[in-house]
User: What shape does this take?
Amino acid sequence: MSKQWTIYLSGEIHSDWRQRIENGADNLPVTFTAPVTDHAASDNCGVDILGPEENSFWKDHKGAQINAIRTRTLIRGADVIVVRFGDQYRQWNAGFDAGFAVACNKPLIVLHPAQLQHALKEIDAAALAVASAPEQVVEILRYVICK
Assistant: This one.
């Protein structure tokens, strides 16, 4: 296939899963996009750009709205969405991205360890594939793009 695919990589930022997918897919016709993965930059973008807030609710609100410009635009433009849930932190943003992807009728691949299966059962049910390792995501991409 000659189509260039855009793959949006959403989710936890504390492991090398994105790099493993990108390295494994280096010979596929894909472009990867992602949210801002610098935690401090993402959390503080609203106040850094628009000015300080005394109330943490409004600080978070400003940042979430600015980040949503990026994430919603990139999800809408992607061919496939991959959402990774790690086991160390609650990734509410990843859950939102998964739901938004489904609402936009985008193919969703969910990536998480087996111990999160019960907690993520609704998200898993909405996904077209559920993987437990980044290498499985690469093989899914290789199959759907090259077969």
User: Anything to note?
Assistant: The CA atoms of residues 22 and 140 lie 13 Å apart. The chain has a mean pLDDT of 95.
